[in-house]
Amino acid sequence: MKATRIAITAGILLGIGANAFAQHGHGGGGSGMGNSGMGHSSLSGASTHGNSGGSAQTTKGSGGKSISDHLSSQSKLSSKLQSLLPAGTDLKTASSGFKNLGQFVAAVHVSNNLGIPFDQLKAKMTGDHAESLGKAVHELKPDANAKSETKKANKQADADITESES
User: What is the DSSP string of 50-115?
Assistant: First the structure.
C-alpha cells in the first residue's frame, strides 16, 4: 500500500515536472509539448514558453529587449509577420500585451493559418483574464484541432525566430 502511494505520488510529481519543463522552456527552442502551450523561443537565452494559465512572464528577454525592440532589430522577422497580418497593422501595437516574442509570433501564425481575426485572438490571449493560445483557438474556432494547430504555430514561430537570428 505504501509503495503504491509512493509510486503514484512520484508519477504525479514527474508529470507536473515534465509539464512545467515543456511549458516554461529548457534553454533551447524546441517545440511546444504542453497541451495548449503558447508561443515559445529562446531568444537571448530567455525562456519564452507560455502556459495555459497565463503566468507572470515578462515581455523582455535577458538583455532587457522588449518584443517591439526585437521586432525593430530583426527586419526579416518583422517583414514576415507584417505579411501575415492585415494590411496597415502596426507591429508594435499588435505585439503589445503578449508575454513574449514567441507567443506573439505563434498567435500571428494561428490567425493566418485558421483565418481567425488577429484582434480577436489577441483579445483572448492578453489582458487580465489571458487564455492560452490553445484555449483561445478552441473558443474562436471550435471545429479546429486546437492542440494540433497550436503545435503547428509554435513550430512556425520557432522556425521564424531561429531564421531571423541567423
Answer: --TT-----S--TTS--HHHHHHH-HHHHHHHHHHSPTT--HHHHHTT-SSHHHHHHHHHHHHHHT
Tell me, letter by letter, the H, E, C secondary structure of 127-141: CCCCCCHHHHHHHHC
Report the predicted TM-score, pTM, of the whole model to 2 decimal places: 0.65
pLDDT at 9 over 90: no
Q: In the chain, what percentage of residues exceed pLDDT 70?
A: 61
> Over the Cα atoms of the chain, what is R_g?
16
The three cell numbers of residue 84 are 501575415
Q: Is 161 helix (H, G, I), strand (E, B) or coil?
A: helix
* Domain boundaries, position 118: 2-165
Which of 28, 73, 74 shows the shortest CA–CA distance to 48? 28
Contact indicator for 164, 44 with CB cutoff of 8 Å: no
Contact predicate 161/134, CB 8 Å: no
**Total domain count, the chain:** 1
Q: Grid coordinates in use for 6?
A: 509512493
Give the C-alpha separation, 114 to 48, whole Å: 23
What is the rounded distance in angstroms from the CA atom of residue 34 to the CA atom of residue 114?
Answer: 20
In this structure, what C-alpha cell is assigned to residue 111?
490567425
Q: Which positions ≥6 away from 3 have C-beta within 8 Å? A: none
